Amino acid sequence: MSEKSKDNFWGGFLLGAIVGGTTAAVVTAILSKNQNDAEADLEAENPMAGIAESNLHHQPEGDRIRQNLEQKIVQLNQAIDAVSQEMQGSSQNVPKGGNPTTLNQES
């Protein structure tokens, strides 16, 4: 390749990068402005729409999590009660200073 064609390549490459970058920036600014305007119009029509919609999406998930936690708490309480009853029952069968097997043998 000659020196002139290399210069033309790099010149075209830089010009294309500048034009492409500028075009992308302008298009992005226009699209974001349009989207912001549309969101503002919707909010002006019904200011509570965005809040209510976000609450609707999060409400069932929060309720489901709360119900799961309540079920687990109930299960834990039942397990604690069962262990507590077992410990109380086994401590009643043990004579003072003895072991549980001596009580059963004496009866």
Detailed description of the structure:
By secondary structure, this protein is an all-alpha fold. It has helices spanning 3-45, 49-93, 100-106. The model is unreliable at 102-107 (pLDDT under 50).
Put the structure in a nutshell.
It contains 3 helices and no strands.
Which key terms come to mind for this protein?
mainly alpha, elongated, 3 helices
Overall strand count? 0
Shape: elongated
Order of helices and strands: HHH
Span from first to last CA?
110 Å
> Number of helical runs?
3
What structural class do helix, strand and pairing data support? mainly alpha
Q: Tell me about the biggest sheet?
A: none
The helical percent reads: over 70%
Low-confidence stretches: 102-107
- Rg, Å, rounded: 38 Å
The share of residues in extended strands comes to: under 5%
